[in-house]
Amino acid sequence: MTLRIVGVAATIAVALLAGWLAMLSLIHGDVALPGLSATLPMLRLDYGVSLLAVPFLALLAFLGIAVALWSGRRGAPLDTVLIAAFTASMLVVLVARSVTSFFLAWEAMSLVSAFLVVAHHEQRGVRRAAFVYLGIAQTGALCVLAALVLLALHAGSPAFAAIARAAPALAPGLRTTVFVLALVGFGSKAGLMPLHFWLPLAHPVAPANASAMLSGAMLKVALYGLCLVVFALAAPGPANWGIALVAIGTFSSVGGVLYALVDHDLKRLLAYHSVENVGIIVIGLGVAQLGLASGNAPLAALALTAAFFHTINHGLFKGLLFLGAGTVSETEGTVDLERLGGLWGHLVWTAPLFLIGCAAITGLPPFNGFASEWLTFQSLIAGWPAGTAAVKLVLLASVAGLALTGGLAAACFVKVFGVVFLGRSRREAPARAPVRERFDLSALGLAVLAALCTLFGLVPMLAVAPLNHVAAAIAGAVPIPMPALPVLPATLILLPLAGALLAALLAAQRGVRRVPTWTCGSPVTPAAQYTATAFSKPLRTIFAFALLPERQRVYEFGPSRWFARRIRYRTESRYLIDEAARYFSAAVLRLARRTRIVQSGSLRLYLAYALAALVLTVALTR
Amino acid sequence: MSVLATVLLIAFAPLVQGAMKRLRARLQRRPGPAVIQPYRDLVKLWRKDALLPEGASVLTVLAPGIVLGVALAFAAVVPIAAGAPAAIDVVALVFLLAVGRFVLSLAALDTRSAFAGMAASREMTFGSLVEPTLLVALLGGAALGGGTGIAGLQHIPLGLAGMLAFAAFFLVLLSETARVPIDNQETHYELTMIHEGLVLEYAGWQLALLQFAAYLQQLSWLFLAALLLPGDTWWAHALWVIAIAVAITIVETAWAKVRLFDVPQLLTTAFVLAATSIGLRLLGGAE
After folding, report:
1. Full residue range of the structural domain in which residue A603 is found
2. CA-CA-CA-CA torsion for A609, A614, A615, A621, nearest 10 degrees?
3. A204/A225 same-domain check
4. Which of A158, A463, A610, B268 is most buried per CB count within 10 Å?
């Protein structure tokens, strides 16, 4: 119990610190924090808050508090302590102002999150997921390190301030190399397609509160790294970077939502939606880069605002959904969509709050996802008039892709909410009578996030105004008047609400007779309800060219060979990217076996290695 | 002015449905129901009790009201004449309409009826395919006209590009108003229906709310489509609305319903048309 209290208190403390630092920077601009200048100038540790970190710090504050509240009631006690450490490491990444301090914090973040992923290590799949996660994290970290070291060597100093000052003099080849390395390094951590494959492995096995933090916050910290390189350390980049980012973002958003549609593990499905939403954010970043490269600062500011706003929003609703999935997992013992159903009846708090999360992630008004997706659309369209034909083509494809993503996400979350919370349980016989949920700390955590989703949807200016201030500072524009917000006139939000009220009043006054489900007269059993597999069948067929579904039908016959007693139906998609990754990792493992000869296990040899590394470091950094 | 327009839309929505039904019957050499039959149906349904499946959640009780509210909002923002202020832009409109789709599909799944679930699945599937086409067709004008406002649509010259955009929009219209090549309003044959399947478990006054919302949404779609066609006056738009309604009815009579898995081809065709329209505008420069 004390362990849990310590973890929760520490997480809240770190979250409050993050919020305070964000406020500080918002008021005073860039603020330097006490650092540590080691004897070796190349290894100095600098800390400070930059304006660029403000949206990410704010997200860490909101999400940290909500996750801590949820963990006060649910989850394993040890996890809460790890989450506090994880939150702290992300905070340090965001305030690191030199290559060394950034990379140390980055590695700490990767390691602590790997501990969270491997929490249920007694299962084989969990260890495998953690191994893949560590592998991709370290590969990405190497790319990040290479990019940052290249920049530091060019600038002659590891301090971010010095690197940014020296950035305009970067040679084009070096600049492009740094961009590609950063894109691979940070993109793999952020879950951008095609380097997303660790996400759907790690999320289902990590505890729910860890998933909320991983998906809601850590992916965003990776995006912060990408922003840092693109908009500060290696700026100004060419327009091609923008085109590449918009294209990758669109690919990621459509691909992520497609895989989410055919997945029936609630947490893995949410992981794929993270791939989708990171894609939407990267579209915004790409348009911002296009704006900067073409000297259109207002466009860059608009697009950055959209990207930052969606960053925060995704953290809020994805945190809400993952924590809700955690509550479902604890009360029902499964997150398999084919076995759930009818939770609305007893999860009386989680169900409506989860519905708000579903509506928000789908981009339905009046929730926050709508406001930021709308801004992203606005920035795509604002980039139109100035663009060359190639840019216009990419923007058009992106508009269509984003619209398709929105529609598919709606389909997916109708599936999720309808199958999990509505209807009736799909299990043969429930293990025990469901217990009516009470309003506890966990529900409070969900409620905080749902309230923020609604607030930022109804009054987007609350978030957009400060974010626009930050974006304008980065883009070098005076804060521009945003497109008229709120985007939906109040009357339009009120009309559906008034309609709901009318329906409720009419139902109260005239009454609604309850009868058995009619369904054209056929018998209604829990098993006859539409399932998640059935629901996604049309889309699986339409997008068969991308999903490559394989189905398997097994008939069991009784006495007659004309009437099957039982039909088993299985369908599975092929994951081409994952298969390619498997080949790649097999090749790497073969290579690793070759290099194992340096690992003799002898202590003396290892000490010699350490000495050699030290000598080399001193020699190189002098 | 705009309130008056909305009131007119509300008043005439069932009439348009009745007229289209009557016209289709005449084209098929049947007498058909009276033009005012939808009003009678609504009154009859309104007087009857509502029935809902046992155990259906409060969401299912609220859904008809929310859907009606969305339809009213749509009717309130669609301009019935050029220059009428549009309080909403195209992107927001698409997302607003998604709210109705989302809520009604959830209610369908809540009833536990397999047919309603099937309809929900199809509604969300085709809805997701329609959205990109809709946005590209509508933004095709807006992107060059500046901004995403609905008002920007009215200043598109009707060249080849405009006609392609309208053709794309027409296919979207058939899907969104549940018309024959995609859906079928006339039948309750469970394997073909989409919209009828969604409301399968509703009855009485709740069904009346839903039916009326569908009529109202249909008329609003017609007015939105008329914006893509030339003409600045309210009567020109009204004439276009009538012409489009007649065209839909002729299509319904002349075409057969396509197989479910051929519908995506139809909708993809619409998307290609819309994208081509933008491509043409690009080639032609700023017209």
Report:
1. 576-621
2. 140
3. yes
4. A158
